[in-house]
Design goal:
With 286 residues, this protein is of the alpha/beta class. The chain is built from 10 helices and 10 strands. It is globular.
Amino acid sequence: MNRRDLLKFAATPLLAGSAVAAPGQSSRLRSALCAYSYREELSKKKMNYSDLVTLAVETGVDGIDMTVYWFPDTSDNFLIPLRSLAYRHAVEIYSISIRSEMTRTTPQERRDEVAAIGKWVDVAEKLGAGHIRVFGGKVPTGSSEDQAAAWCAETLKPAAEYAGKRGIVLGLENHGGITATAARILEIVKKVDSPAVGINLDTGNFEKDAWAQIEMLAPQAVNVQVKAEIRDDSGNRVPGDWPRVIGILKKAGYRGYLALEYEEKDAPANVPGLLRKLDSMTRHSG
């Protein structure tokens, strides 16, 4: 991404009617745990999703972004008790994170993807979550990036129509592939032009120019996943600099959650302390 691209997309106006920060709006930040932080424990059944509610209470965070990869099923027998447990402990299941691949090459495959996202919308509704993290997808072999971006937007639009009728926002994450750069993400979101679509901003996923790209996406962020590390302008892994992240979000008028998504393998040892730190920082950010 060159400087001209950065300036061009940084100047892009906010989408009319979209669920993003308004110019001059004061920020409002809340802390959360992303279930993906405990992927090893959840996948090996050393922890379950109810344990995450307990952890949220113990560390003081406000919410949970429930990565769905290790759900035992999506029946009411699992979803409703989990929602009830969270409510009784004043913890909000505000988001679920799913896998999606919206750059499929055939119309039928894209329709199937819309249907698959729709099933997760139904799950989110039962859990009381108002947001779903979605992936754009890879650029298919033999296809151009422009083609893939168009397919992604074509898929995201009807998925958003279904989600929007249920009061649920889809957050498109900067997650490599077609969403590797802020400029391309903004292009896709602008093309979809839906109040039910925003950006799931992951602070650790940009390979270069991370801070400039975070600033570009912050005004249209509907969820933020913060990492313990971030890549500097040279592409090296360095501490995540949460005060700088919070400063960017406050300047953008972001109102929403900051969910810790811890990618190292020592989660049981380090995540609780980081959650307490994140909660303290969000509560004292005003």
